[in-house]
Amino acid sequence: MWVSPEDVLLAGALWITERANPYFILQKRKGHGDGGGGLAGLLVGTLDVVLDSSARMAPYRILYQTPDSLVYWIIAHGTSRKEITEHWEWLEHNLLQTLSIFENENDITTFVKGKVQGIIAEFNKNHDVKEDDDTDKFKEASAKFRKLFGMPEEEKLVNYYSCSYWKGKVPRQGWLYLSINHLCFYSYLLGKEAKLVVRWADITQLEKSATLLLPDVIKVSTRSNEHLFSVFLNINETFKLAEQLANIAMRQLLDNKGFEQDRSLNPAQIQENKTKRTLDLDARAKSERYRALFRLPKDEKLDGHTDCTLWTPFNKMHILGQMFVSTNYICFTSKEETLCSLIIPLREVTIVEKADSSNVLPSPLSISTKNRMTFLFANLKDRDFLVQRISDFLQQTTSKIYLERELNSSLNSSDDEVRSVSSVKCVSSEELPPPTFIILSCLRAKEFLKEQAWKNHFTEYGQGVCMYRTEKTKELVLKGIPENMRGELWLLFSGAINEMATHPGYYEDLVEKSMGKYNLATEEIERDLHRSLPEHPAFQNEMGIAALRRVLTAYAFRNPNIGYCQAMNIVTSVLLLYAKEEEAFWLLVALCERMLPDYYNTRVVGALVDQGVFEELAREYVPQLYDCMQDLGVISTISLSWFLTLFLSVMPFESAVVVVDCFFYDGIKVIFQLALSVLHANIHQLLSCKDDGEAMTVLGRYLDSVTNKDSTLPPIPHLHSLLTDNGEPHPEVDIFKLVRSSYEKFGSIRADVIEQMRFKQRLRVIQTIEDTTKRNVVRTIVSETAFSIDELEELFVLFKAEHLTSCYWGGSSNPTERHDPSLPYLEQYRIDVEQFKGLFNLLFPWANGAHSDPLAVRFFHLLDQNGDALINFREFINGFGEDGLKLLYKMHVLPGEGSQKIVFGEIKIHNFIELLAALKKGERKCFALWLESHLMGECFHFDSQFIELCKTLYSMFSEDVAEQELYHGTATVTSLLLEMGEVGNDSGTNGERGGGPRGGGPNDRGLPHSTSIDKDWAITFEQFLASVLTEQALVQYFEKPVEVAARITNAKNVRKAGRPLLSTSDYEISLSG
């Protein structure tokens, strides 16, 4: 590429001149390419790898120099000879003659420098490239990355870092390349080369650690290897980027929408600039943290954030914190985590204005909302720019009317009976005996006091989505939310209120569209409807059941990737007790899509991930109990049921809703804290348990005893308690004391630490699921084929790798169509014809010569029985393991031929027999030309099926050791097939011909056969087989055993060599030299 001219004092140091003229010199770097350059070449090659990017050189360059000057100017460099030669030829054709006109050397130098800079400016303008000091170097690195590892243009480099790779006890200094789909390492030291390629989707563990010898190490683990990298200039940046890329890969394995969502990293939309691509990933990560912190919709993107202060009227203070601005929200959180947070939807904003600055209040900004609240921010660094951004977003925000909870909807009207438990009474107050009546009155008094406390809080801190959220808010939540405020506050704390307000009518439309439609999800919903809180009166009638059906069905249609999962019915039924249908629907959306991500998909991945996180937390916080629980296998059993239903299925209802209160306010950390508290409270009993059954009984009795003495609800039988044994009950445990204890003992657990743990566990869980998928697929088809389990597993790895490669780099079909983890095991990975060609050429014994691709296409269409242009692993294996001759025959039968015969059209038989005679003499060229001409339809009316069969045989044998014998055998078999066909045709047409004499036609040349066959005729597989069996050479060829293991090994080695389509799951480190 052309570069801005830079002066070079020593033109000959470490460079070899290859071309020269009076003004320009083309040079190659010593040690590059053939020849090596001796010791100097080795040293140069080592330096080019070890030095950082600012010191590294491209292998080719062009220098400019005037005849009388000692100073050289570098004007172009290139990573390949082709690139630098194009620049050299352009100089010779366009500049060389022009320069001879100038008389002054300074004018020549000025002209050349100006011309080169003009070329660069024009290129940047035409390609919309912004000036960036890093762009040229990054382009060099990208080109080198693709060349070293055989990557296509679609595989874009994100960043690269200098580091050391540890192979045993020996470090190898080189470069770590992080691309969208791969982690790669390259080193070249003193003539020895090392390469490593690992696909992000194959990483099982990624962690940053420290040892005595190596203070900072990144460890990358796959199923078969561990790789250590150290000596980074900025290990935190490297590790963070690696985490982001690995997380994207896991999302793609988990969800077929992952490939669509991650097209924003598609390099077609990004310049060749590492800064741009890295910033894009950083922006993603920041937006995710922003959404999680303020419970915002999943499509909200952070625009920016700035330090500021917020005036809080409730304590008359300016609180230091950060303001966050996004497309639809302005948010604030204090530096001191629990002091204050604030969410202001732009739909609620009425006025944004700059107030007068003063020494006390510099750069203030006032924001007013529809509910007459005013928020005063100050100490803003760039207030004018911030106001402009907020104004721009306000203009884009469509004015929407806030949906009040009292919407008149036909769908919601039936829900009024089930939205509040207080409307369901089992016993009236008048029927209660005096002591019970007094107790109930006391409880109602307590409930009234709670309501008053919340009303006072709303007066002081504001009400609704723009409320100040402080430590006092948390205290009120821990004391329990009043029954008649629960639905409102759940909507507020979960963020569901925002999605409901911005999607008016969405739920009603979903209900209408889903009515009367049936699928697997609706069948499962119907089966579980009457199992959802059957002990609660609200769900003992059709009105409550109908509302639950509508909410679950609407969500199944909204999110078909999840559809319906067991446990959703229990959670949704509780939501419906405190919220209207539409509110319950949006609460369910918040749960499934934001607060409990991936919990309710078909493989409950999110719950399994959090199960692993819980194990890590148990090891850290209750170490004396951890080993015992692991031995009993209890942690995995309890955590799934506890987490999936938020303790609703294992605690008395009136106690479990208090847990849900805290969960909506503080998120998943509440569930972890509470689970640890339950273990800690039973530590002595659990240590004495001898088996998992005894441990589960201990925990079951404890949870059954958790009571809510403040509850005004009528007594509801608890299903879990009905299933426990008749042993002595556990003493009562107050739910409020249990929750407060969990905060006191385990409240130090931070949400960001949980997310870090989730990432680590997600890698493990998803790779375990992938391994399970492989085992299930192999177990399903092992009885249908002659391949061993090990061979099938190796073939599955190659098949899956080809599938993923096509998803990464494109193919003839959409990746979301062929990658769907929700499908049955056998259908999750499918390949199209282009990927099949690659595997065919590597694994099948007939793949050689120019006819390989057409044969692969025939084979693919034979295997693709349902005609969807994709084949799964079973179809692939069944084809691979089929008898050779029968497979060859089937490939050449026209689709839809019920008789399974190869059909021949009209033939000038004497011409073909003459050709066979030439064939037997070994005139192969004649045969090849003849076949080619018939495929083009230039000579005879000869059906393409038979011609293609002949051409396939000819191509198959072209490189075999017994080629001549096989060739003669093919001619003999072809002759026999023609004779069989003619005899069959004659026997069927003699009556029509009237038994007339054979021959005598206008085309008769004295041959002992009829001159033509006037009707189509065919041969069966049995005839084909009988003909082949007459030739021993062909019999030996088709009966020759295929060395499957050797072909698999060869396929893996070919992939390691760096072909354009890389697909090994984990390349071994390769050393040469």
From TrEMBL:
Gene3D superfamilies: EF-hand (1.10.238.10), Pleckstrin-homology domain (PH domain)/Phosphotyrosine-binding domain (PTB) (2.30.29.30), putative rabgap domain of human tbc1 domain family member 14 like domains (1.10.8.270), Ypt/Rab-GAP domain of gyp1p, domain 1 (1.10.10.750), Ypt/Rab-GAP domain of gyp1p, domain 3 (1.10.472.80). Residues 480-667 form the Rab-GAP TBC domain. GO terms for molecular function: calcium ion binding; GTPase activator activity. Transmembrane segments: none annotated. SUPFAM superfamilies: EF-hand, Ypt/Rab-GAP domain of gyp1p. PROSITE patterns: EF_HAND_2, TBC_RABGAP. Residues 851-886 form the EF-hand domain. SMART domains: GRAM, TBC. Residues 984-1009 are annotated as: Disordered. InterPro entries: EF-hand-dom_pair, EF_hand_dom, GRAM, PH-like_dom_sf, Rab-GAP-TBC_dom, Rab-GAP_TBC_sf, TCB1D9/TCB1D9B_PH-GRAM1, TCB1D9/TCB1D9B_PH-GRAM2. CDD domains: PH-GRAM1_TCB1D9_TCB1D9B (cd13351), PH-GRAM2_TCB1D9_TCB1D9B (cd13354). Coiled coil: none annotated. Residues 991-1003 have a biased composition (Gly residues). One of its GO terms (biological process) is system process. The keyword Repeat applies. Keywords: GTPase activation, Repeat. May act as a GTPase-activating protein for Rab family protein(s). This is TBC1 domain family member 9. It comes from Salarias fasciatus (Jewelled blenny). The gene is tbc1d9.
